[in-house]
Amino acid sequence: MVTIKDVARLAGVSPSTASRAINDSDMISQATKERVKKAMEALDYSPNYSAQNLVKRKSNTVGIILPVREGQDSLGNNPFFMQIIQGIAAVCTDQGYMVALATGRSEAELLKNVQNMIRSGNIGKLIFLYFKTDDQVFDFVKRQRVDCVVVGQSTTKDPGNAKFVNNNNHQAGYDAAAFLLQKGYEAIVYAYTGMNELVQAERYKGYAALMASKALTAQALCITLKDDRKSQKQLLDQLAKRSKMAFVVCDDVLAIHLQRLIKQAAADTQLAIISFNNSVLAALASPALTSIDIFPYQLGEQAAELVLSSAAPSPQPVLVPHQIIERETTPFIV
Question: Of 259, 75, 295, 260, which is closest to residue 168 (Cα–Cα)?
Fold first, then answer.
């Protein structure tokens, strides 16, 4: 971990001078402040304002980091996230904390916003509402040793100061495929947007495990929310293979998009769809979606309680259960 001593050494000043420069002391010349600032940037150093403020009892805000929002149709706009935030806010309010949000239209923009959030000194704890491989934002927070909770699972043996809250997404994917199998479907396809998102990857692994246990072929269909023509061609290729087909879809928003593509394709295929999140969109869809409720409000509550607790960091997650909510998109095969 980079310290104030490293910054001072690179800037050619004493640690106390570096500290005063960082705090914009009138005792330090502007030229020295600029040297210290450049050293901080070169070393990617952030002052540990969170620790200072905790000592001073000034840091009473929990930062919430949302996934990158690439466009209006991005899964980052999902009402699922609002439900998690409501759960976090309820617990934080009860314990005298406020919440602040960080988001961005790109990973670089999100990283900049999180850096500013930490460097402001007002944020002492963070909650990530996503987790993916090779994430610059999480890596930065880990280097700063800020206490954080991730809604998701760890992929590293050294999670830094992170704790984790999650569903058993592997089991949820398995259960989704098993539910469709009970309805008589054997041609079952997993539809997703990106396997670099660990939630989607784990659900696929669970689905694939069920298919393998029944000697059935696992098939994955990547659907982009930006290119309908490409997605529709891939879908038609799948539908042409079978007269009866079912889909395990990673999210309610994507499931509704899939419903629209199917309608446009006007395919003569008996279809079933089961998705995840059981958001308000699932009940409003036409036909209404069978969806797996992963209890996002409870995920938010657990995340807030964990980030405010004194529990030691651990890669082992606190697990929240899931439940299949059956509606109109999973009829028995005729």
Answer: 295
